[in-house]
Each structure stands twice: as structure tokens, then as C-alpha cells.
Amino acid sequence: MIKIIDLKVLEILDSRGNPTVQVQFFTDSNNVTSKVPSGASTGIHEALELRDQNPKRFNGKGVMKALNNIIEVIKPEILNKDFYTQEEFDALLLKLDGTENKSNLGANAMLACSMAFARLKALESSQKLYNSFSSQLSLPTPMVNVLNGGSHADNNLDIQEFMIVPNGIEEFPEKIRAVAEIFQSLKSILKAQNLVTSVGDEGGFAPNLDSNHQALDLLKQAIEKAGYTLGSQINFALDVAASEFYKDGKYNYEGKDLTKEEFYNKMADLVNNYPIISIEDPFSEDDFESFTKLTQEFGSKIQIVGDDLLVTNIERLQKAIDEKACNAILIKLNQIGTVTETLQAIELAKENNFGVIISHRSGETEDTFIADLSVGMNAGQIKTGSVSRSDRVAKYNRLLQINQELEG
Description:
Helix content is about 40%, strand content about 20%. It is built from twelve helices and 17 strands. A hairpin with a 2-residue loop joins strand 10 and strand 11. The protein has two domains: about 1-125, Enolase-like, domain 1 (2-Layer Sandwich), CATH 3.30.390.10; about 140-405, TIM Barrel (Alpha-Beta Barrel). By secondary structure, the protein is an alpha/beta fold. The chain is globular and about 60 Å long. It has helices spanning about 65-80, 85-95, 105-125, 170-190, 210-225, 260-275, 290-300, 315-325, 335, 340-350, 370-375, 390-405, and strands at about 1-5, 5-15, 20-25, 30-35, 80-85, 140, 145-150, 160-165, 235-240, 245, 250-255, 255-260, 275-280, 305, 330, 355-360, 380-385.
């Protein structure tokens, strides 16, 4: 049983310098803090992140409305009440909000409270957070974004994330060592070619390049220079985030307006010519038809991942299952707004043999909840950016710590 006796809220900054929500819950014996991330390339079907829209504060991005909702609406309903389960607590939040997209309270307000309750529940039962989710534990394979483009960088690359995946390396610390060494190798190659080595929102390098193909060729060089084998130890993954450059039925890709068919061929060409094992959001967020076509052609060989397509929503996930529109889901807590609904999406995906990738957002904090979630839910994969910027590295360091704890 959990009895919350007090709570505090705070408007803090995320990794982009924008405001976000922090909440602290207190019981008689413990207190916990949770911080909520924020996305840049957000899908139109995501739960609503409540912002103040006051241009005189943080360019309209303040979160005082969300904080006030916690204090004025949520706090009176949860203080000094007995809660026994996460589902019970989250059901109350959903009832208080009463909308499908969390537009009354805000998904940021609700998620901060939901995460804090999960932490309290683990603490009060003397469990590690990862142990509180299930008894089946595993360290995830990191999908590490080493080149940033799209909405995550001020450069000319259309594809949002070029990732390296150490899926051919066994031990988790060795996976992290490999990607860190490749990251440094890539930096030296960029410097040698007089390309910028400043980083984007998720910590990957953000140079201007001639094409998306050039980005993958640079990664190939970096992997080989670091002493690893492409195609066996290390593979590629892409987050295309195609909704960001889709308009009026066309994809504006590499300076040209392409039809759906032409753009499909571009995606197929990438998969055919590089050791890509996962491709996320290769089409716009409502184009189930193209997703299905790509899954039919390549789904037996690679992951076709729905992010904006699915938004951690079990109804959209069920549609994708029915239409065979993809074979993996990206899980983002703040896309849906509560821990319970997040766990439901993970379970539904697993029941239907979908791959599961636990994901950060491009506007992050030092909160490491998703690291514990990935281990506790035996997700198998995690996306939390590059191996630079402390908001990203905090998750990898937490996973290294968990790995040590599990090894005893």
C-alpha cells in the first residue's frame, strides 16, 4: 500500500533549454523525483504535452499550466489515499483528465505523477525499479544515434537518426565500449575531412553532407577504423522520421519532391545496399499502406518500426498488427502519458511477436526511468541517443550499473 502525504512540483529545463515538468512525491518514509522529457518530431496522434502558450514566458513553452493541474486537480485526489497498484493510481489520473489525448491535465503532468508513483511503489517494497516491472530481466542492445539529421540537427540531412547497433557483441559493457570507440573514430574522420564535429539534440554529430548515402559510408569507415566488423558485430539502424518532410502527398527528400512510390524505392534501395537491421518511420504517420508493403518485402529480414505511426497507443498498435503494417514498436512514455498504458503497449507488442524498443525523446533530462524500464520489461532494445551529452549518457551509465548489480 502506498500513501502519498505530500508532493512538490518544479518547472525545470530539458536538454534543449526548454521548460519541462518535475514532480516529487513524499511518503512517511521515502521521497522520489521524476522528470518528463519532450519531443521535437512529435506525431499528431501523441498525447498532448500541455504548454502555457504565453509568448512572454519561454516563447510560449512554459509548463505552469501543467504544474498547476498537478497541484490543483491531482494533489487533492491522491494525498493521504491508499493505493495498491500502478493500474489503480493511473486509472485515477485518466479519470481526472477525462480526454482521449490527455488535453485537460496534459500528458506531461500525468506522466510525471505516474512515473513518481512507480518509483515509490518499488521503493516502498524494497525493490529496484527494474525489478518492480517483472521477474524476466535482460540488458537491452543499444541503438546509438551517432549522426543526427532532420528535426534533431541544423544540417541538410533528411534522415533524422543514423544509428549503430552492436547486436553482434555479447556483453553489455562491451557493447557500450564498441559504440563509444566508433563514436570517437567517427569524430576523427569528420575532422580529417574538415566536417563539423558539433553535435545535435541527441548527441550525434551533425555535419552537412552530400547525401544520406554519404552518412552511411562515413559510419562504415568509422566502424572499420575502430576495429569492428560491419555486418556481424555492428549493424545500421535508421530513424527516417518521414512525416517531417511529407506534405501534400509528396516526400521532399534530398531536394526533390518524390511520390510515395518513388520514395518507397529510395527506402528499399537503402535496405538493399547497406547492413540495415532496423528502419523506423520510413513513411508518414498515417500511411499504413506503405508500411505494410515494406513489411511484406523486408519484414522477414529487418525491423520495420512504428513510432509516429503507433505513438505507444494500443489502438493504433492493434491496427498495425491487423494490417501487418510493421513488426516492431518504439515505446515512448510521454507519447501516451501513463506507465500503465505504456506497459499495456509493450505487452500487446510482445504477444504479437513485435520487437520492442524503449526510447528517449530529443528533449531529455537526467532522469533514467527508461533504463530500468528496458531491463524490467525485457524489451531487448533501447534508443537513448549518442554517447555524448550527459542527458543521454546518464541512461547508459544507469544500464552499466544495473548490469553490475545483476552480475552480483
